[in-house]
Amino acid sequence: MKTSLKDIAETLKLSKTTVSWVLSGKGDEKGISLATQEKVFQCAKQLNYQPNLLARSLNTGISGTIGLIIPDITDSFYSKVARSIEMEAEAQGYSLMICSSESEIERENRMIRLFKAKQVDGIIVAPTKVSKIEIQNLVKEGYPLVLFDRYFPEMQTNYIIIDNEGSSYELVKRMIDNGASKIAIITTNPHLRTMNMRREGYARALIEANLPVDPDLYGEVTFVDYEENVFKALDQIFGKVPDVDGFFFTTHILALEAFRYFYEKGININNGYELACIHGVSAFRVLAPNMNIARMPIEEIGKNAVRILLGDIKYRLENSNGKKEVETLVLPCSLP
Amino acid sequence: MKTSLKDIAETLKLSKTTVSWVLSGKGDEKGISLATQEKVFQCAKQLNYQPNLLARSLNTGISGTIGLIIPDITDSFYSKVARSIEMEAEAQGYSLMICSSESEIERENRMIRLFKAKQVDGIIVAPTKVSKIEIQNLVKEGYPLVLFDRYFPEMQTNYIIIDNEGSSYELVKRMIDNGASKIAIITTNPHLRTMNMRREGYARALIEANLPVDPDLYGEVTFVDYEENVFKALDQIFGKVPDVDGFFFTTHILALEAFRYFYEKGININNGYELACIHGVSAFRVLAPNMNIARMPIEEIGKNAVRILLGDIKYRLENSNGKKEVETLVLPCSLP
DNA sequence: CTGAAAGCGCTTACAG
DNA sequence: CTGAAAGCGCTTACAG
């Protein structure tokens, strides 16, 4: 049913070699007569020939596919980066396989193994918490790899992160400049370096302004059941510091939940409070038009991830197994 | 560097056949001695053998991969369905390739061709407006295919949609029951059957309640630059019908934009207005806690899409080229 | 200007 | 109980 090179070769009484060369655009280079080339193209079109990319990949060792693993495809940050990566990869002639790890370490490891088995040329991953085993294997094998959003300082890998500390610092500084002095931080997953840095930026801004880093203004929320836990954390903060006058949210998810809290408690958060959040979603334009938002450089992340990965892939092709030195990028957020 | 079946066979002085059988779990069935099996497993583990799935697929004609094409991966509806499909596919032993068509017909066609070239076993697609050529080809070839969200009545395909007319009717009925009588509809892409059905449901509810279907309450927004166009549509409606008392949004995207409008104009939409929307996003819980929302049966869509697709795939394997009759599903939304 | 042959890494009748 | 061989659909030296 499906037509193959062989079918074309047989109908035209040519060799598969010739057909393959013509179809892959090497006709002129290989000095194949225009007449023959024309015949081949004609026949291919007529039989509706579609090359079997699997066979090609098996032969060349190049799949033309890169793998992307993100914690959650429904998270607006990750899905936007995914789109950016898809567009960039496509522009470079690569296709993309996307998988969610669901923040489960075992899923992440499984996905990496799957990608390798499917012979993807390289992998981009926003690693989940403590993910290690398979990422370590990738590093050991010199498999083209780019991490983003999170990274492991003890591992020699390419990575792209945002300037978590600096962005947080700038956000909190703006809140202070606008008059806030009792600024709470609502954060999660403190074991993540990412979150640590955000907390540090927050603290630096406070200290610089001679404000205390008050533990009573620290709201930490476990990620499971975060809906409920955001409420608890806010209850506590309002209990201990009733005149709190600012909130710094380390993620948009926490902020959205907090807005639900404010709404339910009848707190008009857009009046008398300073707000800040890392990463913005469209609902914020309505919910809190004045919130200070550090906008993620989505396009930059996507473009650079693909660029670095393809660089590694190319390098590896040319210097079999040679290991290129890693590239690390700390991108600034755009601030108000 | 990478170990293959051959490497194991050679180190163990066995044939590739034996090794392949053992590793694919057919050792007992083929009567291979436990001693040999043990040796093979040992060696595979030691050499860190990972089968090349490309080679297997080329041989068996089964890639174990299904392709998914959605208009926009950053849209919360589509990304949630994507996640549901990914989970369900994985549970069935399939992996998933996701691509966005970006609502561009040429991209969609290209993606379908790519999927075929990569030999995916079947394709799930939420088609874009007028997409046809390649989908028609798929149908003609009997390629396993499931459409969702949108479909083409003139084509014999599996599809899963929600009950657009019924859900819209129910939503508008609730608004009327709650006292609204001048209900505007804000909609887009009127050439889509989906949107047409939603408008028809809206009209039926009005007519049933002896309310006029007032053209002045009809707000149609082109999808490009919809931000701006939502504002224009609302301006017009308020201009012509100042005492409008309800808004039915046919998509969450339009509603979000409208909330921005209400906010900017200082209209307290949660007071004196009835609201309804097809598909809910988390921000609505804060922006409009009383809005009537028809919740999409995300899990149902995902599960059924995979079930139907795998059914087709299996059927086709067993009856080469036989065409199974198509399955069409109209799922209800859950209503308030 | 064109072709025969080997090989990518698997699986699977067929044979003993 | 195990193996030699063909084949999936390509690409690419090598040869003429």
Describe this entry's structure for a reader.
By secondary structure, chain A is an alpha/beta fold. Chain A folds into 3 domains: 47 residues, Orthogonal Bundle (434 Repressor (Amino-terminal Domain)), CATH 1.10.260; 132 residues, Rossmann fold; 131 residues, Response regulator (Rossmann fold). Chain A contains 13 helices and 11 strands. In chain A, the strands form 2 sheets. Chain A has a 6-stranded parallel beta sheet, with helices on both faces. In chain A, strands 7-6-8-9-10 form a 5-stranded parallel beta sheet. In chain A, helix 1 packs across helix 3, helix 5 crosses helix 13 and helix 10 packs across helix 11. The mean pLDDT of chain A is 91. At the A-B interface, helix 4, helix 5, strand 2, helix 6 and helix 11 of A face helix 4, helix 5, strand 2, helix 6 and helix 11 of B. The structure holds a DNA duplex (16 and 16 nucleotides). Chains A, B: Keywords: DNA-binding, Transcription, Transcription regulation. Chains A, B: InterPro entries: HTH_LacI, Lambda_DNA-bd_dom_sf, Peripla_BP/Lac1_sug-bd_dom, Peripla_BP_I. Chains A, B: GO terms for molecular function: DNA binding. Chains A, B: This is LacI family DNA-binding transcriptional regulator.
